[in-house]
Design brief:
alpha+beta, 4-stranded mixed beta sheet, 29% helix, 23 strands, UDP-n-acetylglucosamine1-carboxyvinyl-transferase, Chain, binds ligand EPZ
Length: 440
């Protein structure tokens, strides 16, 4: 049965939420454990669907995974790893993109890997050409079949000289997870350097990998013959933190995010202050609140790290609908990441989408047929509406808009949100939201 979330909007969100490990790091760390000859231990693991998917995929490959939900401690024992049935992989892959990152570790362990047709949020084409290209450079044989992609390494995997056309997070992780046990040196130019990448490098280094990150986005990996296990506490989820901060702004509330860390939020916090939010930091977390003045419009451009993260754009767009004036957002990482604005327009927001690069830097999507810039005029009175959640971050932004809107919103498709936000229904209820859940 599908769930229906009914929201009576207009109440400021006030109180405390707890944010745990990063959705965009924890599942990758779990895959990294496959490379080890010893068990690993991961702390701060959140209860989210992406962790469930990777737990199932590791289990069908023989990894023993134990997790204590309350403490967030997970142990992974990869000492009895074997190949899994392709049908089992397909069944458990769900709508995640993580299966593609199993390629390197499974080829090192079993000599082969299988990737079913991948899922992930519909925020663009989400190709995997960079992934397949780097795997071929390591010596893998890529065999595209109707059911998915079979990848093998008949002659083993050798280090390679690589350069990414775009600093892709996933493709950088693909290289890291393959190069650490490949024979010889791998050099990756134009790599992603997101905080989650650095945390994955820390984990691999603990296992015995030799990885160097240079100031020009080049990463150098010296292949080793064996890796042990790791014991690591994941960095907190900066995207969930930014989402709650935006919720405080839009609902004119005040939210304490236990577990949040300022370090990886620099670009977000500058923007948050400029629009009219306030924050303070203590040893346990961060507090975010609406500073009381009318919100100010701004020009925003997403970018790879250390720029303004593309996953922060959606909740910030909702805040900009409440700003006094015209704002511009130029999305340069994904070509189609403004689909969520349709529901906001139905709720009363004034948002126009454009094909031009409306920002200081022309991007890959300029003069192609992508509506990747948005002009937002505010403030708009938002009223409740019927909403079907389109993707993870856009979906959470719909919740924020419905919580701020006057009147009732009926929200379906909320299961998507549990991919990245643990216990989010309990959290918004705990912040004083007037909500009810029913089965449809
Ligand atoms: C990761 O996705 C995150 N997901 C995304 O978060 C995040 O938005 C993104 O990195 C950028 O930071 C996870 O970590 C699970 P990319 P990923 O490869 O690795 C193009 C969220 O809401 N590209 O850096 O898939 C791609 O189309 C999610 O938490 C290719 O063209 O992102 C995009 O335009 C959304 N070919 C750009 O690169 C490829 O082979 C960035 O993608 C791979 C990517």
């Amino acid at each position: 049965m599908a769930k229906l979330l009914t929201i009576q909007g207009g109440k400021p969100l006030q109180g405390e939420v707890h944010v745990r490990g990063a959705k965009n790091l924890v599942p990758k760390s779990m895959v990294a454990s496959l490379l080890g000859s010893e068990p690993s231990e991961l702390h701060n693991v959140p209860e989210i669907k992406d962790v469930d998917i990777v737990t199932n995929l590791l289990t069908i490959h023989g990894v023993k995974v134990d997790r204590d939900a309350a403490s967030g401690v997970m142990t992974l024992d990869p000492r009895e790893t074997y190949s899994a049935e392709h049908s089992a992989i397909d069944t458990h892959a769900g709508d995640s993109r993580i299966p593609i990152l199993f390629c390197g570790p499974l080829m090192h362990k079993n000599g082969e890997a299988f990737i079913p047709d991948l899922g992930g949020c519909r925020i663009g084409d989400r190709p995997i050409n960079y992934h397949l290209e780097v795997l071929r450079n390591f010596g893998a044989v890529v065999d595209k079949r109707a059911t998915g992609i079979h990848i093998s390494a008949p002659k083993g995997l050798r280090g390679a000289k690589l350069e990414l056309p775009f600093p892709s997070v996933g493709a950088t992780e693909q290289v890291l997870l393959t190069a650490v046990l490949a024979e010889g040196i791998t050099e990756l130019k134009n790599s992603a350097v997101e905080p989650e990448i650095h945390d994955l490098i820390a984990i691999l280094q603990q296992m015995g990998a030799i990885i160097t990150v240079y100031t020009d986005r080049t990463i150098r990996i010296e292949g080793v013959s064996r890796l042990s296990g790791f014991r690591h506490r994941s960095i907190p989820d900066r995207n969930e933190t930014a989402s709650w901060a935006s919720a405080a702004l839009v609902t004119e509330g005040d939210i304490y995010v236990r577990g949040a860390a300022q370090r990886d939020l620099t670009a977000f916090l500058n923007t948050y202050r400029k629009i009219g939010g306030e924050f303070e930091v203590d040893e346990e977390g961060m507090r975010f609140w609406h500073a009381g003045e009318p919100l100010k419009p701004l020009v925003l451009e997403t970018d790879v790290h250390p720029g303004f993260m593309t996953d922060w754009q959606q909740p910030m767009v909702v805040a900009l609908t409440q700003a006094n004036g015209v704002s511009i957002v130029h999305e340069t990482v994904y070509e189609n990441r403004f689909g969520f604005t349709q529901a906001l327009t139905r709720m009363g927001a004034s948002i126009q989408l454009h094909r031009e690069c409306l920002g200081s830097n022309p991007c890959r999507f300029g003069q192609r047929n992508f509506l990747h810039s948005a002009v937002i005029s505010g403030p708009s009175k938002l009223t409740g509406a019927d909403i079907d959640i389109p993707d993870l971050r856009g979906g959470f932004s719909h919740l924020i808009a419905a919580l701020a809107a006057k009147g009732t919103s009926n929200v379906t498709g909320i299961e998507i949100i549990s991919r990245g936000y643990e216990y989010f229904i309990d959290k918004i209820a705990g912040l004083g939201a007037d909500i009810s859940i029913s089965e449809r």
